[in-house]
Amino acid sequence: MAFSSVAGLLEAARSVPLWQAVLRDDCMDRGVEESRSRKKMSSLWAAMKGTLSDYEPAARSHSGLTGGAGALLEGEGPGLCPPFLRQVMAAALKTGECNACMKRIVAAPTAGSSGVLPAVLVPLQLRDGLADEVMEQALYVAAGFGQVIATRASIAGAEGGCQAEIGSASAMAAAALIHLMGGTAEQMAHGCALALANTLGLVCDPVAGLVEVPCVNRNVMGAVNALSCAELALSGVESVIPCDEVIDAMRSVGEALPASLRETGGGGLAATPTGRRIAEGL
After folding, report:
1. Where are the alpha helices (DSSP H) in the chain?
2. Is residue 1 part of a domain?
3. Does the model's pTM come out above 0.85?
4. Is 167 within a domain?
């Protein structure tokens, strides 16, 4: 039976590693062998990496609003961020741009938030020399927390605003990072809760109704938020509000958001004079 609470996820993780509890749950839920589940996760991980390796700096979206930004983050930069952080930011932009350019991405949990998980995971694998099998375990961790969020709240911008997309992706990524760094299941829950709490109320306001502005750049924010919350949790910082309660709060906030701030392109940045001119021009 699919997990409907983080508390239940943590309980299952008392006897086996959390990633394995999610793997077993997936097999039971879909009626498949472990080998089939792991093969599917392996293909998703390969696709995430493929999106980044196939990135084309010259490619532009049909609207002309998106493309080339990821390449600008390559290299040393102005010196505010260390190389690893710039790689994370670049990966988030590249994946978001590939989505806007209609290239292959992994919706994790959605296409609009597809840049967050690969942005933190791919550079970390390159930095630390982690095996693909270990990275796939991290994806199971992310999937487990994402499943709870989807069950208790939403991962759709049309239902809960961008907090449900970038916020969920950031929370999933924080938990995955904590797994990779040897953290406990409880720390994963705290990292997830902290990341969600930081994005509560984030609206979905795509200019011209396209998943480009400000969506692509928000993937960067989600990735950096995941890194900071994973660092907090691994250092012993805990979420005062339990993870399940944070998820429930996200649902309540999403329900309170007006329709104009839930993917309709009728509010926020989409409703600015410039946003409207872009929409009219397209």
Report:
1. 6-12, 18-30, 34-53, 69-72, 83-100, 116-128, 132-152, 157-160, 166-180, 185-199, 215-234, 243-256, 273-281
2. no
3. yes
4. yes
